[in-house]
């Protein structure tokens, strides 16, 4: 069985996209584009190459994924690829797939077709799509002529190679500037086969490409689940609500810090991905969690969502109590929940209500919270 590695090149600045961050770190349907691209190769060993000074951006974008430390790239794409290939040299694979971070919609079909061509004996394999539009070339005199589109193709990635051969080609022709790895392979006399690419495997280059990629991703598998929690009052001078320490005449009794808001949201997120409830992950019989901060529980649930390729679209929690008043703390609670979940504060809602003096909350014996979460997988 041939050993395979994937090299994802994410070292560019992406200036043509006109985005605040380098385009590979900009959100695409709720996730950084680089993360989406890496997740397209789930189950395969991936090495990412990043630009100088992008370590923190990469760490945030790839948080929770089982990857080796990103390799710093060079001044050109060619140099970045060479550095990535060198990083694989200590445990060299048989084949390597070199892919652009700006192509997040690559399919398993195309990946498998590239690998199949290598297994059949090709030195390299290139996915290509036939040119469908009318092509025109502008001459030096300013006049336009039609270029026949027969036998014209658009090259895509991943471009696959026998690792030893493409690594040698990169070192032998390091001084020559080429447009992609296939061009370099051809300089080295390697046999490169074409496989059929896909129209949806677009390269996100300009700002408008983000909207196109978003539409191609589509709605996904959208799931909604609820969570509910209750804690009773006990002696104390403060309570924890939605990650915020709120002064109060009583405390809340619980094995952890008894934050009903965060517990309810945690259960809602776990429900969206079918991962049980908070008690299964953090049992009250386990002394490790005595007095624990509940943000750790919520952070754990959010990480599980990300590990399943999910995006948290929205969370909403309703706190049910007569006292303390939630209104003065609402904005700070929303901000804290958003911070824990690593989502925009606009995707968090915190509400409060009373039971008009009825029931245990009406008698001020405790606090309840009800949450609902929406996740897109």
Structural notes for this entry:
- By secondary structure, the chain is of the alpha/beta class.
- The protein folds into 2 domains: 4-217, Alpha-Beta Complex (Spore Coat Polysaccharide Biosynthesis Protein SpsA, Chain A); 222-376, 2-Layer Sandwich (60s Ribosomal Protein L30, Chain: A).
- The protein contains 12 helices and 19 strands.
- It has helices spanning 33-39, 55-61, 77-87, 108-119, 163-172, 181-187, 207-217, 260-272, 278-281, 295-307, 330-341, 359-362; strands spanning 4-10, 27-28, 31-32, 46-50, 71-72, 95-100, 124-130, 135-138, 144-147, 153-155, 159-162, 192-196, 222-234, 238-241, 244-247, 251-252, 311-320, 348-353, 366-376.
- Strands 1, 4, 5, 6, 7, 10, 11 and 12 form an 8-stranded mixed sheet that branches.
- A hairpin with a 5-residue loop joins strand 8 (135-138) and strand 9 (144-147).
- Helix 5 (163-172) crosses helix 6 (181-187) and helix 8 packs parallel to helix 10.
- The longest helix has 13 residues, at 260-272.
- The chain is elongated and about 85 Å long.
- 40% of the residues are buried.
- The mean pLDDT is 92.
Number of structural domains: 2
According to CATH, the fold-level topology of the largest domain is Spore Coat Polysaccharide Biosynthesis Protein SpsA, Chain A
What's the rounded overall pLDDT mean?
Answer: 92
Q: Outline, from the CA principal axes?
A: elongated
> CATH top level of the largest domain?
Alpha Beta
CATH level 4 superfamily of the largest domain: Spore Coat Polysaccharide Biosynthesis Protein SpsA, Chain A
For the biggest sheet, the summary is: 8 strands, mixed
Helix segment tally:
12
Radius of gyration: 26 Å
What share of residues is helical? 25-40%
CATH architecture classification name of the largest domain: Alpha-Beta Complex
User: Which band does the percent of strand residues land in?
Assistant: 25-35%
Low-confidence stretches: none
Distance between the ends: 32 Å
Number of beta strands:
19
């Amino acid at each position: 069985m041939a050993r395979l590695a994937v090299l994802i090149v994410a070292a560019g600045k992406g200036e043509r996209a006109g985005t605040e961050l380098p385009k590979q770190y900009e959100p695409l349907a709720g996730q950084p584009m680089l993360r989406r691209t890496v997740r397209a190769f789930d189950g395969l060993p991936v090495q990412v190459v990043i630009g100088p000074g992008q370590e923190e951006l990469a760490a945030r974008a790839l948080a929770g994924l089982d990857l080796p430390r990103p390799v710093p790239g060079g001044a050109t794409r060619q140099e970045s690829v060479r550095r990535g290939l060198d990083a694989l040299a200590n445990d060299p694979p048989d084949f390597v797939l070199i892919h652009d971070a700006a192509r997040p919609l690559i399919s398993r079909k195309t990946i498998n077709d590239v690998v199949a061509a290598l297994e059949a004996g090709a030195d390299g394999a290139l996915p290509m799509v036939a040119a469908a539009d009318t092509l025109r070339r502008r001459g030096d005199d300013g006049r336009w002529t039609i270029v026949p589109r027969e036998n014209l193709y658009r090259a895509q990635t991943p471009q696959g190679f026998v690792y030893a051969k493409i690594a040698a080609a990169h070192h032998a022709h390091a001084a020559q500037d080429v447009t992609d790895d296939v061009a370099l392979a051809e300089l080295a006399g390697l046999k490169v086969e074409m496989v059929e690419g896909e129209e949806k495997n677009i390269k996100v280059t300009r700002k408008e490409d983000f909207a196109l990629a978003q539409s191609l991703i589509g709605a996904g598998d959208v799931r909604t689940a609820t969570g509910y929690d209750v804690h009773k009052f006990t002696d104390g001078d403060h309570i924890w609500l939605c990650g915020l320490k709120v002064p109060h005449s009583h405390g809340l009794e619980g094995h952890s810090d008894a934050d009903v808001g965060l517990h309810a949201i945690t259960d809602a997120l776990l429900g969206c991905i079918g991962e049980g409830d908070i008690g299964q992950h953090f049992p009250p019989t386990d002394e490790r969690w005595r007095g624990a901060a509940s943000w750790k529980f919520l952070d754990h649930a959010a990480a599980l969502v990300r590990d399943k390729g999910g995006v948290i679209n929205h969370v909403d929690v309703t706190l049910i109590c007569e006292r303390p008043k939630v209104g003065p703390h609402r904005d700070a609670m929303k901000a804290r929940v958003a911070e824990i979940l690593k989502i925009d504060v606009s995707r968090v809602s915190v509400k409060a209500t009373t039971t008009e003096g009825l029931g245990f909350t009406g008698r001020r014996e405790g606090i309840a919270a009800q949450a609902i979460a929406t996740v897109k997988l």
